[in-house]
Specification:
Helix content: over 70%
Order of helices and strands: HHEEH
Number of helices: 3
Shape: elongated
Largest sheet: 2 strands, antiparallel
Distance between the termini: 34 Å
Radius of gyration: 17 Å
Structural class: mainly alpha
Strand content: 5-15%
Length: 106
């Protein structure tokens, strides 16, 4: 189920920030990068497990996820829908701007 949401979100992001005529090629490029990342992480995790065991894998996973979250704040701007409103998401918006958009009104 998470893969379905991830795939749809990824496709929607690419569609919103790239010209429509190159959408398919950009989607294929992103998929290829995902495949390369999977192969690299699989090979790397073999060595991490061999030298550091399960705790090493947990730390590596946490660090990789943290890097992904930090990197995501450098994405191109685009329109997003939050609580039924369409909002212009600024490049390098950061956590503070996200909090301001999402905070409850009142």
């Amino acid at each position: 189920m998470a893969a379905c949401f991830s795939s749809g979100t990824q496709s929607a992001y690419i569609y919103s920030v790239e010209p429509k005529d190159i959408f398919v090629s950009k989607t294929a490029h992103v998929a290829n990068c995902g495949t390369a990342g999977f192969v690299i992480s699989t090979i790397t995790y073999v060595f991490i497990y061999k030298f550091y065991g399960i705790p090493g894998l947990l730390v590596a996973t946490i660090l990789a996820d943290l890097a992904a979250v930090i990197t995501s704040f450098g994405l191109k701007r685009g329109l997003i829908r939050i609580r039924g409103k369409i909002v212009l998401w600024q490049e390098n918006a950061g956590l503070l701007n996200l909090y301001v958009i999402l905070k409850p009104s009142g």
